[in-house]
Each structure stands twice: as C-alpha cells, then as structure tokens.
Amino acid sequence: MSISPSKVSTPRTQISGFVRARAPGRINLIGEHVDYQGGVVMPAAINRYVKAAAQANGRSEVRLSSSQSHGDLVVPLEHKTPFSGDKSWANYAFGVVAKYRDAGHPVTGFDVKFESNLPLGAGLSSSAALETATALVVEGMLGLELPQAERALLCQRAEHEWAGVPCGIMDQLAVNAGVAGHALKIDCSTLEIAPAPLPANLSAVVVDSKVKHALADGEYAKRRADCEAAAAFFDVEFLRDVTAGELDSAQIQLGERVYRRARHVISEMARVGEFAAALEAGDTAAAGLLMAASHSSLRDDYEVSCQELDTLVEIAGGLGAIGARMMGGGFGGSTVNLVETSAASRFAEDIVARYREETGAEVEALAVNLVGGASIENVE
Ligand code: GLA
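^ thats the input. predicted complex w/ alpha-D-galactopyranose below
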C-alpha cells in the first residue's frame, strides 16, 4: 500500500467549542539526517503522546498552558514574533496557530491545555507532537480536516519560522501518518508513504540518554548548510541525485568536512533501501548490521553523536540487540534498539543496569509499541 498526499481538505461534520486531540512521538529505525536531502526515512509513531484539550473562549486571544511548564501564556491572535526563554515551548503551539491563520484559516480564540508523557528533548519528536496536537485542535474547532501532508507541512513551517529549527519533514509526517504495527517508508522528496510491517518477533526499545540536545543551537543548521553546499556543487537540489562514485571524485574540491557530511547522507540513503529489503526478507542480521553502519556514519562522518550515545550503542550489542543506533537530530537524546520481542523487557532492564555499572549515570529504557498517527479524540 502506498499513500499519496491528497490535496483536498475535508470538512469535518461538526464545528465545535471543545476539542481533544492527541499526537504520538516517533522513533526512526533508519534514514537519519536524510529527510532534508530528499531521502527515504523509516520512522514509526509510538505509544507516547502529547494530548491537547481546547475550548473556544470567544476572545481574540489564545491561552496556552502546559503541565510541563510554569504559568499560562495569553497570546493575542495577531501576535507575530517568536517567544524566547522559558516561553519558547509556545513557539511549537502558537506558531502553528499563526501558520493556520497565515494560510487563511479563520482561527478564533481558544484556551488549550497540553499534557504529555513523551519526554522532551529525547529525540522522540515531542516538538512535532506538540505542533500536531495544536493543529488538530485548531482544525477540530474550525470543522476542517486537512490532508496529513498539508498539516505536516504547516507544522514544519511553524518549526522553521517560530522555533528557528530548519527541520526536515520526517517527524511531522510520522506523527500524523503512523500505522499500528508498522514503520513508515517515507519518500521525503514526494511525501509518499508506504507502511512497512515490523515483524511480530521484533520490537523497538528506546533508550533515553538523558543528555538534552538543542537542535536550535546551530549544529543542525550547519549540517544542513554543508549538505546544501555539496548539492550546489553538483548542481542538484538534493544529494539523493548524487552517487557515491560522483561524490568520491569530488572529494578534493568539496573539502574534507563537506565531503564527509555528504558521504553520510549518500551512504545512509543506500542503507535505508537495504534495511527495508532485509526487514521484508526476515534477514534480521543484515538489518542489525545496517543500523550499526548508520550509527558509525552519524558518529564519524556526520559528527552528531556523543559519548553517551556511543556507549549505549556499544552496550546494546553486548546485550544481544539485533541492531542499535542513535536516533533523531543527535547530540544527545535517545538510541533506538531492535530486539527480539520475547527479550524486549529484559533488554530494557539490562541496559539501564549495565549503563549504570559502566558510567554511574542513569538512563531510561522503554519498550515501545508502534501505533496509529495523531487523531482528534472527541469534539463537543
Ligand atoms: C530532527 C529533525 C528531522 C530529521 C532528524 C534527523 O528530528 O526534526 O527533520 O532531520 O532530526 O534525521
């Protein structure tokens, strides 16, 4: 099955004053730092959520509150500038409201409260989940249902313009389009999505290193800029259109850093196709080796890993994981581990204990289920 992005918005049956929505986090099995170069990625939505409950307030302002922040925020609907400091979380929520208004949707005032059991800054896309939960309550109140790809693009624009993070489209699409029991093969140049079942004997375990990353600190943007410089050298929009051989022959002209960044992207794109084929063929050993190669490439060529993630990946190998690698933007956050389902909870316990023994530090491990995408829960 392949889902093409549809262009038509569907009116929901009811326009309402009260809406609840929830949006899951995501893991990514493979395809890291390739979405903004038109690559294919393999994320999956997981059973950890941001939930939003919203109520029309009859005023021309949005009142935001979150169980994870201090104090409510009252924002006039026409507010135009990003928030900073301890209000910056609101960029992911109000930024989405602003993007719906910019797109011509007649959003009126509402109060919204967010709750979440999705750890923040853990590389599990809490940002995309917050954006999408906001998008759904806005749509619910307007009696509107945008196509998933259009909603994802609006959320991505909010993240670019309000949060200042030049992210790709993987997270927003995964959060919106998740399919229970499946990863999603997303072609980030066409936004086509093909769900790929995760065999029942395999499970994903996320290990949160507790090292907080800040994608907005500029490293993510620098990686993107290096890729864009390489693509410009080859006169293509995306590195997906450059072969490994072409890249190698331009090593001197590109310079060592840009060459290695592009080598990660091009090699990772090849690994995604091989990984999907290995999973389909039930060749778990091959899938595991590809995850290991992905991690090494992110560590050595892309330089987005850190000591804690490297240690977690090493320990996972010793504990019998089929595959393990860092996940998401990097510089902290989580690893994703593919394990036999029968061993998943044992693995989760063991990796926490072994990491503590080796480093004295605490991590959190979570066996996750792959779930459906974001949804409106009820409308009154
Ligand atoms: C972050 C971004 C995504 C993607 C990943 C790396 O999660 O939001 O768009 O680039 O990093 O794969």
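The chain has two domains: 10-196, 199-368.
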